[in-house]
Amino acid sequence: MDGVPVSVSDAVTEPVELPPVSVGSKTVVVREPSTEVVIEPPLEPPIEPSLELDIAFEEELRSPITSSDGPAASGTYEVGALGSAEPRGRRKRHSAGVHQSLAGVAVRQDTGAHEIVSETTPAPAPAAAPRRTPRKTRTYASVGAPPREPTSSLEALSQGRPRSATGMWDTSKTGFYKPLPATARIVHLWEELGLRVGQRIAEAVNDDHVYLLMMAVLVGVASGATAGVLLLWIAWTVEAFPAVGKAFPSFGWIYLVLAPALGGLMVGGLRTVARRYFGDIPEGIPAVIEAVGQQGQLEGRSGAVLGIGTGLTIASGGSVGHEGPTVAIGATVGSVVARFFGLRMRRQTTMVGAGCAAGLASAFNAPLAGVIFTVEVVFKRSVGGNVGTMSVFTPLIVAAVAGTFTSYAIFGERSELIAPGEVAGDHLLVEMIFFLALAVVAGLLSPLMSRVILWIGDLFERMKRLPQWVRPGLGGLGVGILGVVLFTQLLGPGRGIVFDALNSELVWQVALGLALLKILATALTIGSGGMGGVFMPSLVIGACVGTVVHALAALVLGDGVSQPAAYALVGMGAYLGATLRAPLTPIVMIFELTGDYGLILPLMFACILSAFVAGRVEKDTLFDLTLRRRGSSRVLDTGDDIGVMQRGHVGDLMVPPDHMLRMSSSFEELQRAALVEDTPTLYLLDDHERVAGVIDSRALAARVLRGEIDHEASAGELATNERPTLLVPDDTLAGAMLAFSRSGRDVLPVVDADRQLLGLLERTVLMTHYSEHVLEQRDAELALHSGAGLDHEVNLGMGVTLERVVVGRNWAGRTLIELDLRGQVNVQVLEWRRDDQLLAIDPKQPLREGDVLALAGNRDDLLAARWVG
Questions:
Q1: What CATH number belongs to 432-625?
Q2: Fewest beta carbons within 10 Å, which of 293, 375, 389, 673?
Q3: Which portions of the sequence form the region Disordered (predicted)?
Q4: What residues are paired with 681 via a beta bridge?
Q5: 698: burial class by Cβ within 10 Å (0-12, 13-18, 19+)?
């Protein structure tokens, strides 16, 4: 066929010509699987090939768009006007059948659509169309065939693969291509640069563990520097707000009331603008916990918005602290760094944890506390890997140390808590009853604060007529009134209160009032929409409670009681432990900050008891309750993988045997059983119904082909020398997983105490149970551009890993027989789901793009499986 090729890519196989499509006087022919497009008759002059080419036909189209098979279906088609009067992104709608003017054909290599125009809402064509003056228009048509896979990420970038993060359209759904804006192109180039740099560093290091530690150092330094920027921003805003008040001295106390309201309005405006341009941005430690449960994805803009909003809230008098946002921003830094260098999903989660540890370490100059907090709070429900392994725990330590050194380099030696020397008394054991009472009070007050914060948040949410950007201002106004009418110490984080408590300058009557009112002030600030954390308010409330209990101890015991600072420190640890439901974090943090070993015993008892009491009063922490309000309860309800499998028993999943061979069975019986059974493993029974031998049918078949088998031999003579691995009904499913891993068998016998056979347990049944009870609660599935996308891996022990993959274009349309995953890469398909429906694993059934497969194998084989086909 004569014609001018408009855009030609390498043809993979012999072209298959699709039915030609007529557009006016021109005919467009698409040849597959290449993206060669031929237009007849040829255009003059010839047009050079390009990635995207608009061919303008400035002639009137008198008939609807048709193909050689008949007229196009009636519907609404998107048509864009030619010329500069209308931007490229805008489209006008015309009904099929109406006289239209042909504009051109846009060729995109990365679309698998073959339609000439994108059909949207069907609409009947009018019986007759009025004659209208012809004008020049441009019709954008999406033609082409599925391209060959790019040989490099740079080639994939040049093809403009759509990504939701950049706002590109999915051409396979719309039929149109929206050009990337300049900023998105820069983002793509930046990501490509990071991936290449990461690959070069990994190749130079040639050690995955060392490379991970290098990334942890980078995350720690970056998190420490970001924490320094946040503190400098807060310091500047703290100076700016009083400066405004001094400029209007006549306002006096009125300014103290209005300052928190003004800061709240600014934060509300910031949140509204961020939501308008970036969508709903999760913030704070709850967002970090959610990200860890969903593959460690945190956007950098969320950290920037949180940092700006926290500075405005604190400077204007909001009752929040900067420590929580510092942790969240550190986690964001870890996520951004991990994605920039192209780390795998599990490593991204590790870097998020490293950022958390570095953030808290930078905030308090307490590296060990940062590590413990990350493990105890952020990774508490982590299901992507074992936190206790050195591959996860070591990067946390390295990042925390790097963050502390960076913070020290910026601000020098500093501490949020400075205790006045030795504070423990001579009768510490006698005072233990008061410390325990302090822990009980802290354990009761902490859930109260969580409930008040959520109650006030719900109250503001019910104010539908009140704009969202006004709500933080209203909450700030309430805080300002509390501060002016009752205690000005309620304004701001409350470090002055902690300082007074540690230096015995806080009387118990004021401390009692401050403890209760600080809960209300914090609830008004956070519940109305202010930005900040609850770390410092928790320490303030704990110090106040400790001061009150010290007054009671002094009244009962008289002289010789410990200093008020001792009770304040223990109270701070107890209240923070109750708030986090994490007793180790405050124990380590306060010990790091004070260095007073004399308080370690009451501190440990108080933190553990307060966390226990708070857990009995309210199961969920404030972070958990916040996530449930956001609809992210799946992150909290995933449970522990090992616990899920330890609660089940082998007897629950075993099935009775249909037919069992005996040691005396003939070779012919053995052959028939091998052909009937789905598993290559056959077990033999003796005369007492006990499992006595095992036969590998695949190995037996190989011996038959080599002529090594005596057909007169019995099954017992052909059995392997392997000692069968036996299970009992009371074995846990976790133990059965380990047994399967060690034996390498697809089915194991279940016996009683006398080794008599009761049933069989199949590996596929066990894995399906695990998938339904664990993996189905995780919806973070990553679709890659290759044959299949890998979800985060679940380590089953002994090198066996379970993965869920999303079928991509390479696998779509192919059967499991054609892929032969087990034969090529030793990977077993355990489950097949389509649109949330469980399908029977039919090796002859073609896969569809978007299907979800559960695969089992070692990690290297699973990675290699992506490139099969």
A1: 1.10.3080.10
A2: 389
A3: 116-168
A4: 696
A5: exposed
Q: Which of 257, 372, 233 is nearest to 305 (CA)?
A: 233
Tokens of 413: 């030696």
Q: How many other CB atoms sit within 10 Å of the CB of residue 744?
A: 13
Alpha-helical runs (H) found in 121-252? 153-158, 171-174, 182-205, 208-247
CATH class for the region spanning 208-411: mainly alpha
CA-to-CA dists, residue 711 to 2, 660, 662, 674, 702, angstroms: 68, 20, 16, 15, 14
The full 3-state SS of 781-838, as one line of letters, equals CCCCCCCEEECCCEEEECCEEEEEEEECCCCCCCCHHHHCHHHHHCCEEEEEEECCEE
Exposed e or buried b per residue across 287-300, where buried means at least 16 C-beta atoms within 10 angstroms of its C-beta: bbbbbbbbbbbbbe
Question: What pLDDT, on the 0 to 100 scale, is given for residue 761?
Answer: 87
Q: Which CATH architecture has domain 647-759?
A: Roll (3.10)
pLDDT of residue 634: 58
Domain ranges of the chain: 208-411, 432-625, 647-759, 778-865
Can 208-411 and 432-625 be said to share one CATH topology? yes
Q: How far apart are CA 351 and CA 330, in angstroms?
A: 10
Q: Residue by residue, what is the 3-state secondary structure of 394-455?
A: HHHHHHHHHHHHHHHHHHCCCCCCCCCCCCCCCCCCCCHHHHHHHHHHHHHHHHHHHHHHHH
Encode 650-671 in three state secondary structure.
HHHHCECCCCCEECCCCHHHHH
Q: What is the predicted pLDDT for the residue at 133?
A: 40
CA 343, 349, 352 angle in degrees (round to 5)?
A: 100
Q: Kindly give, in sequence order, each residue whose CB lies less than 8 Å from that of residue 555, ignoring residues fewer than 6 positions away.
A: none
How many other C-beta atoms are found inside a 10 Å radius of the C-beta of residue 756? 14
| 850: Cβ contacts below 8 Å, ≥ 6 apart | 783, 806, 807, 834, 835
CA angle 407, 408, 413 (to 5 degrees): 130
CA distance 661 to 787: 42
- Sign of torsion over alpha carbons 752, 755, 758, 761: positive
In angstroms, the CA 758 to CA 690 distance is 10
Q: What is the pLDDT of residues 22-68, one digit of tens each?
A: 444 444 444 444 444 444 444 444 433 333 333 333 333 333 333 33
Residue 473's SS3 state is helix
Q: What pLDDT score was predicted for residue 392?
A: 74
Closest CA to 524 of 476, 469, 484: 476
Residue 729, preceding peptide bond in cis (omega within 30° of 0): no
CATH of domain 778-865: 3.30.70.1450
Spell out, as residue ranges, where the chain has pLDDT lower than 50: 1-18, 21-181, 244-245, 247, 383-386, 639, 776-792
Distance of CA 272 to the CA centre of its chain: 24
Supply the pLDDT for residue 608. 93
pLDDT tens digits, 571-629? 999 999 999 998 999 999 888 888 777 788 888 999 999 999 999 998 888 888 888 87
